[in-house]
Amino acid sequence: MSRLRFSLRQLEYFVAVAESGTLSGASEKLLVSQPGLSQALGDLERALGVQLAVRRKAHGVTLTPTGTQVLQYARDLLRRAEDLENVAAGGDTLAGTLSVGCYVTLAPTALPPLMQEFCDLHPGVTIDFVEDTQDVLQRRLRQGELDLAVLYDMAIDPEMARTVISTVHPHVLLPADHRLAHATEVSLVDLADEPCVQFDAPPSSTNTHRIFEQAGVVPNVRYRPTTFETTRALVGRGMGYAVLVQRPENNHTYEGRPLVVKEIAEDVREERIVIAWPRSMTLHRRAQAFVDFCLERRAD
């Protein structure tokens, strides 16, 4: 095995500079002088034999295409180094940071119990999380910014590994005074002429289109809100109905207007909730433990 010509400290400084976008930002974060950071970055570039970043006064630091690739592996190496340190210090005890993304509408109901229960089991682990659309979360997984992401099993990149942790069934959301509010279930055919409020955040809009297509219905889409609660708010005011997947326990809008949830009469498949990560990346101990925890939780 050839001798490494770079250090973990240099990788740590490189990642900090890349994430901050400036030497000054990384300097404040790491409490290291800017000349020291610049020297470490230059030493790393010479050790690897490539240019990782372009430095411009007043424009910060921009990664080269090679630098972007190296950043992904640098993050992974630093996480594994943290695992090694934890194993050496405490055997099987998990410690350190786990970065988890979650699809924006899933986050309020899916993420808090997972975070709390996992951290109760592993108090040494800190979970950092972000909420976003599925396309953004998958991009951040590929770039190494996230360890894992909780997503709907829709429009998942082939390069992502994933495992199912839960299932949910799509439903119709109606205002409480709707003519079908007391029906046991509702056919999408009976709603075809009414205004539809279509939640428009990838991949929800595509999935909603598929549900209507399966039912042979062309919806009369009147509004396309990009947030879940605005969708619910418009329905609560009687401005249309919506087809949604996520089911909050609270059947009222932010304004306090009542809503009713109805099962869809047509045969609509369940939607799977998955936890995903890049196939090219081997999960570190904290990430693997979180995946195992989610699977055990589903089995219970």
TrEMBL record:
One of its GO terms (molecular function) is DNA-binding transcription factor activity. Residues 6-64 form the HTH lysR-type domain. This is LysR family transcriptional regulator. It comes from Saccharopolyspora karakumensis. Keywords: DNA-binding, Transcription, Transcription regulation. GO terms for cellular component: protein-DNA complex. Transmembrane segments: none annotated. Gene3D superfamilies: Periplasmic binding protein-like II (3.40.190.10), Winged helix-like DNA-binding domain superfamily/Winged helix DNA-binding domain (1.10.10.10). Belongs to the LysR transcriptional regulatory family. PANTHER family: HCA OPERON TRANSCRIPTIONAL ACTIVATOR HCAR (PTHR30346:SF0), TRANSCRIPTIONAL DUAL REGULATOR HCAR-RELATED (PTHR30346).
